[in-house]
Amino acid sequence: MTNSTSFDLYLEPWLTARVPRIAEYSRQLADFYDWVRTEVDAQANYTDRYAPPALETYDRNGEVVNRVVANRWYDQQHQELYRRGIIGLPYAEQAPHLLTFAMGYVLSQADISLHCPVTLTGAVAYVLSAHAPDAVRQQFLYDVARMDGLAKTGGTWATEQHGGSDVGATTTTAVQHGDRFALHGLKWFTSNANSGLALATARPQGGRKRDGRAWSLPRAQSSGRWWAQSLSHPSLERQARHQRASDRRDRITRRGSCRSCCAS
Questions:
Q1: pLDDT digits (tens, 9 = 90+) for 55-74
Q2: How many CA atoms within 13 Å lie on the side-chain side of 97?
Q3: Number of neighbouring beta carbons within 10 Å of residue 10
Q4: Which of 9, 97, 189, 194 is 20 to 30 A from 259 (CA-CA)?
Q5: What b-and-e string marks burial along 185-203, b requiring 16 or more CB atoms within 10 Å of the CB?
Q6: Domains of the chain
Q7: How much is the pTM?
């Protein structure tokens, strides 16, 4: 247990005044703060100085795998974050999402390299919860929101070199193979490249230039490869149409990228 009375003497009253249910998690936040400022901070210092992540291009059989290998301490703490509910609490207990943002605020002060994949996993969980068809939601949401120490992390793969942050400019295409799709294209970098479930942007084969859609890509445990399933949903289609209309009005192509925690 912690000796702290608050995870942040200024911020916690401010959050509680706006979202009263935050008070129900005061002890949990204080315990989380104590864990971060001791265990996570120590791990971050060790990782930065002695055991940074490394790219493993080939496996022992000479096959191309291109995976990022982190030290065991980092991996254990990464999974511990999900066990503590940094993603799952809003789905398991209908906790306010503001709670997980407060946890992320604390975490980022000790190890931003842990917070980065957490935010991406949170984004994947939210898209699955709010926008995915029922069958896709039921198949994948539990995997990224579970709190038993076995959660999959999420990634978002959208940026292409020619389009930057303009996801409508994607040239990656989705080719149907039965009830699944194969995506063909090149993403300029992949956020959380080691994720167990990623969301990628692509347009259906033969689709219009800006007919971009989101696709879920679960990693196959046996081969480490991904197959895509469409996340096409009326709300996403409306957003895509609105984006195309906005693009026609202002003809602005937005460009940019973030390289702080992504694999290019």
A1: 999 989 999 888 899 999 99
A2: 7
A3: 7
A4: 97
A5: eebbbbbbbbbbbbbbbbb
A6: 11-110 (no CATH), 155-263 (2.40.110)
A7: 0.81
